[in-house]
Design goal:
The chain is of the alpha/beta class and 427 residues long. The chain contains 14 helices and 17 strands. Helix content is 37%, strand content 23%. α12 crosses α13 and α12 packs across α14. The chain binds guanine and fe (iii) ion.
């Protein structure tokens, strides 16, 4: 992903550790061929970079791009609607009927245009995306995402049981379509790649899971799914897979967990399941807005961080209504406070700095060296004009960033956005 070389001058802020955000006021972040070369005080910029084009962002904040590691593109059409049910009823009442529409390529074209345009203008630089079971519609989504310059993993969904007739495949057809799709799209794009996407255990038979395990190995692709989101779901999986020692084992048995797998939610993971996630290096996508709106529960993210699990944030549209990663950060902090107050005072609430780390480094690391302004990291950057949030009192850049975390979706205007060194069109 060769990109441009240039210098961004502004208030450069990034996570120097899980708990600390560093800021160089009026500093220079150097992008060399799409990769970050480092951050310097303006007066200390090394001579080798002095000749590069310099983009002066004035008093703006310059922060790493954000990664949304769990979002359903086809559900963007009904975001903010039908938020009155729990997961399994919500899927049957709203989600499955909507996703069935994507058999119609014309509908998919129109719907995905809106989703991709909004994602392009958002703070999200990289995303891990669910499509639907339909291969043609999923290719439309991939083509559109590629055209934006964002980096994404996109999944054709697999579903061969407990699904309506309008949104189900036979086991063999599902595996065969997945193979053909992978043959078609692997290596076709610069910034878009396929990800295996068994919807969740209730929608996928053990037979198809087994095939997907083979396919994962054969094509060497990442995996995404849902895990331990809702109490009725967890109970149902216990009935569907009595052989599995925990819900996570129903994926792990088929080789579907690992450092290239994202499991959304993990609200009700047992001790054994947490240990399985840790041992396999599986990513947890924390989706606080969805967990709240679907009344699923509150995931113990503090515990996952303490125990060394890999964690990032997801919007989980349309379980969550908002695509905004600012909103996801604020919701992660708020949810952790409620958990601390109501559930478990042994787990301290998340700080805004930790939420910022989750949105940038935590999720970004699923894509490689992503989410920091440090040498060797891919250069994903947001130039943020927060003047709409200004008051009578001058705030430090870190205070302004803290305010963006909580108010960004209403007052942080992006003036520039770079992904792997490429300037993204925000129009
Ligand atoms: N579990 C299975 N499918 C879905 C989905 O579309 N959204 C959420 N939040 N959970 C799921
Ligand atoms: Fe989801």
């Amino acid at each position: 992903m060769a990109g441009e070389s240039f210098v961004l001058k502004g208030n450069i802020c990034w996570s120097s550790s899980k708990t600390e955000v560093e800021c160089v006021e009026g500093g220079c972040a150097v992008c060399a061929g799409g990769t970050c070369a480092g951050v310097w005080e303006a007066a200390e910029l090394p001579d080798v970079y002095a000749g590069l084009p310099l983009i002066d962002c004035g008093d703006a904040l310059v922060v790493p791009g954000m990664s949304d590691i769990h979002v359903h593109a086809p559900q963007y059409t009904f975001r903010g609607l039908g938020m009155d049910r729990e997961l399994l009823d919500w899927l049957n009442a709203y989600t499955f009927p909507e996703e069935a529409r994507y058999r119609d390529l014309d509908y998919a074209e129109r719907a995905y245009t809106v989703f991709v345009d909004d994602l392009r203008r958002s703070a999200t630089c990289r995303a891990v995306v669910f499509g639907t079971i339909h291969v043609p519609a999923t290719k439309v989504l991939m083509n559109k995402l590629e055209a934006t310059g964002l980096v994404s993993y996109v999944g054709k969904v697999n579903m061969d049981r407990n699904s309506p007739l309008s949104l189900v495949e036979t086991s063999q057809a599902s595996a065969a379509a997945t193979r053909r799709w992978l043959d078609d799209v692997i290596g076709r794009y610069e910034r878009t790649a396929p990800i295996l996407t068994p919807r969740f255990t209730p929608s996928v038979t053990d037979g198809l899971m087994k095939d997907l395990g083979w396919i994962r190995e054969e094509f060497d692709v990442p995996v995404q799914s849902h895990l331990s989101e809702n109490l009725s779901e967890v109970k149902w999986v216990g009935e569907l897979c009595p052989w599995a020692s925990c819900y996570g084992e129903a994926y792990n048995f088929f080789g579907l967990l690992g450092p290239r797998t994202v499991m959304a939610h993990c609200v009700y993971s047992t001790d054994d399941e947490v240990e399985l996630l840790r041992r396999t290096g599986t990513y947890v996508a924390h989706c606080p807005q969805s967990n709240t709106q679907l009344a699923s529960g509150i995931a113990p993210i503090r515990r996952y961080l303490d125990e060394g699990l890999s964690v990032g944030l997801g919007s989980d549209v349309a379980g969550g209504a908002s695509l905004s990663m600012w909103r996801a950060m604020s919701d992660a902090v708020a949810a952790s406070k409620l958990r601390w107050r109501l559930v478990d005072q042994a787990l301290a609430p998340l700080t805004w700095q930790e939420a910022f780390w989750l949105a940038t480094v935590g999720g970004g690391s699923f894509f490689g060296f992503v989410g920091k302004f440090e040498e060797g990291y891919e250069f994903d950057a947001l130039v943020v004009d927060d003047s709409a949030l200004a008051g009578p009192r001058d705030l430090l850049p870190l205070e302004r960033l803290e305010r963006c975390v909580h108010l960004g979706s209403e007052g942080a205007r992006l003036t520039r956005k770079y992904v792997a060194g490429r300037l993204i069109d925000l129009a």
